[in-house]
Write a structure and sequence with these properties.
Strands 2-1-14-13-12-11-10-9 form an eight-stranded antiparallel β-sheet, with helices on both faces. A two-stranded antiparallel sheet has the order 3-8. The longest helix is centred in the C-terminal third of the chain and has 16 residues. It is built from twelve helices and 14 strands. It is globular, with a radius of gyration of 23 Å. It has a single domain, classed as Beta-lactamase. The chain is α+β, with helices and mostly antiparallel strands. Helices cover 32% and strands 17% of the residues.
């Protein structure tokens, strides 16, 4: 017996197999290496949820990225707004062919902008020609502007008035495509007019609560992000980063103000494309896309169509609001979704790596 034990203990051990590298983790680290401070990506399918993190929660620290951290989703908010509008259309309470003038009389009527010629469809599709209010907001355009006005409150009417200082980007409406946050501020105002309740309340009652998106919120004028989150940074086109985490996002009502997490966004995209939020007719309207030259994708009603490297396409939206940048979406049937966000507005390499991650992960199958 003793000899047998000795023989077993002195026999050469089989070499341990190295664990295969996690493809998602590798992609997240590659995004960090393009200059992002922190990165989080998450992929969901009916039977799996995979997450990966890289970088830190704040510059010049070793604090890890928070698990299920919250962030400003920026223009991914537009998909929420378009969903509410299309729900109201499905209920027969309004039409995509209604004009802005019908719901908001006299509001869009200056410098060649004519609300009577612009339909709700054109707002959601960015084919209205209405100028973007973004360049009029100091907090979004320079470090000094941010420091001076990050806590300023805007009313939707004030924002539209700022946009009306300019002539249409193109005319007549429907004759071009140009991304404009003003379109979705107007859509939020129309939601209020149709329902008698503010945009934030409708988003909560129609999307956030039914889907149990517990970490998703419409902060209104409150400037802080509650709960776990990483700091956000932007250089405003200079070489110096500014911490831009605190922001009164009232300038982005309907267009970019929602706070969420990668997990909640995945659940939203999966539910939307899976037909849980819209009837088939309205979902088809949303996913009927046209060329959007400014973005290099196709665009429907609050939803972009992006080619997949394995063929076909996915539907989602890019989001950015001062330092937090996200890409996310789902396959057309909603069975697989992916979201990635960074906490520093990177350059073209960062953007390409982010959209590459989403596309590759939506193409990848798991055993």
């Amino acid at each position: 017996m003793a000899t047998a034990v000795l023989a077993a203990s002195t026999a050469p051990m089989a070499a341990a197999r190295p664990r295969p590298a996690d493809p998602l983790q590798q992609k997240v680290e590659a995004i960090r290496d393009t200059g992002a401070v922190g990165v989080h990506a998450e992929v969901m399918s009916p039977d799996a949820r995979d997450s990966a993190y890289a970088g830190t929660a704040a510059m010049n620290t070793k604090r890890p990225m928070p698990r299920d951290g919250r962030f400003r989703i920026g223009s991914a908010t537009k998909t929420f707004t378009a969903t509410v509008v299309l729900q109201l259309v499905g209920e027969g309470r309004m039409s995509l062919e209604d004009t802005v003038e019908q719901w908001l009389p006299g509001l869009v009527r200056a410098n060649g902008n004519e609300g009577g010629q612009i339909t709700v469809r054109q707002l959601l599709q960015h084919t209205s020609g209405i100028p973007d209010v973004g360049p009029e907001i100091p907090a979004l355009n320079s470090a000094n502007g941010y420091r001076a006005e990050r806590f300023r409150t805007y009313s939707p009417e004030e924002l539209v008035g700022l946009a009306m200082r300019h002539r249409p980007t193109f005319s007549p409406p429907g004759d071009g495509w140009s991304y404009s946050n003003t379109n979705y501020i107007l859509a939020a105002m129309i939601i209020h007019k149709v329902t008698g309740r503010v945009w934030a309340r409708e988003v909560k009652d129609r999307i956030i609560r039914p889907l149990k998106l517990r970490d998703t919120s419409t902060p209104g004028v409150f400037p802080s992000i509650l709960g776990p989150h990483a700091q956000a940074y932007t250089a405003f086109g200079t070489g110096t980063d500014t911490d831009v985490t605190k922001l009164n996002s009232s300038m982005a009502v309907g267009s970019g103000s929602i706070i969420s997490t990668a997990r909640d966004l995945n659940r939203f995209y999966a539910a939307l494309l899976g037909g849980r939020l819209l009837a088939p007719a309205q979902l088809d309207e949303m996913a009927t896309t046209m060329r959007a030259p400014e973005l290099g994708v196709r665009y429907g009603l609050g939803l972009a169509e992006i080619p997949l490297p394995c063929g076909g396409s996915f539907f989602g939206h890019r989001g950015e609001l001062l330092g937090y940048v996200a890409w996310g979406g789902a396959t057309r049937d909603g069975t697989r979704s992916a979201v990635v966000y960074v906490t520093r507005d990177g350059g073209q390499d960062t953007q390409q790596a982010m959209i590459g991650l989403v596309g590759q992960e939506l193409c990848r199958t798991r055993s």
